[in-house]
Amino acid sequence: MGTPEILMIAVIVLVLFGGSQIPKIAKNLGQAQRELKKAMDEGKAEDKPAGDK
User: Fold this and answer.
1) Which residue has the higher pLDDT, 51 or 8?
2) Could you give the CA distance from residue 39 to residue 33 in angstroms, rounded to a whole number?
3) Which of 5, 7, 2 has its CA nearest to residue 15?
4) What is the C-alpha separation between 1 and 9, in angstroms, rounded?
């Protein structure tokens, strides 16, 4: 995805949700990303044999 596409998506999000909602949406996306990463790390830890922990 190039710069024009990213800018177009940003404009659409701004129009749909309004400027005041953007920080809240960004915060929620960040929290979801952290939770997903944590779950993936826990899954990798469970896949290792007991002697490797």
Assistant:
1) 8
2) 10
3) 7
4) 11
Hey, what are 50's tokens?
């007991």
Q: What is the pTM of this model?
A: 0.56
The token pair at 31 is 């929290």
| SS3 of 1-53 | CCHHHHHHHHHHHHHHHCHHHHHHHHHHHHHHHHHHHHHHHHHHHHHCCHHHC
Interatomic CA distance for residues 6 and 27, integer angstroms: 19
Position 50 scores a pLDDT of: 62
Whether 45 and 53 have beta carbons less than 8 Å apart is answered as yes
Query: What is the spatial distance between Cα 43 and Cα 47, in angstroms, rounded to a whole number?
Result: 6
